[in-house]
Sequence to fold (160 residues):
Amino acid sequence: MLRDVDSFACFLSYDGVQTVADEDEEFIAEGLLDYFKRWDTELQPVLGDVQLLAGAEVADLADRVSGALMQITGVIEQRRAFVEYYPGWFRAGDLLAVLRNAMRSELGLKDEIHTYLPRSGDWPWLEGRPSEEDYVRRQLDIPGRPPLTATELSRLNHEE
Fold:
């Protein structure tokens, strides 16, 4: 749902100076309505299940995440600026990460998962692994392969 809300919040005026265009207004209104329905009909029943089966910490955090997912819609409902919306979105994402790690801990998995946003410029690639340019360069070693294309060559030249 955190991804869903962002799919229509992005149509808010960035800084609040400009008004929302009519076609964007319709998209925001429909997105909010669908979001509220999903929050009520899908998320709340699952929250009830978590509260029934999970320990107190996980149950509390799940309730907080549910509340955060609803609270961040206030800026959108009032059609305020996107720059007022996104800090709450990041806070909700952080709270979701805390919930995930508490759930992992309750399941006996002691190592935490960190999903920092924004991510580094190299993400999702692992350090020390071959780059795309390395794979292009490997094409030169294939017997009978036609010469590299202009795109492939520019890729190699860009690296150097």
In short: The chain is about 65% helix and 0% strand. The CA atoms of residues 21 and 44 lie 32 Å apart. The chain has a mean pLDDT of 92. Residues 22-53 form the longest helix (32 residues).
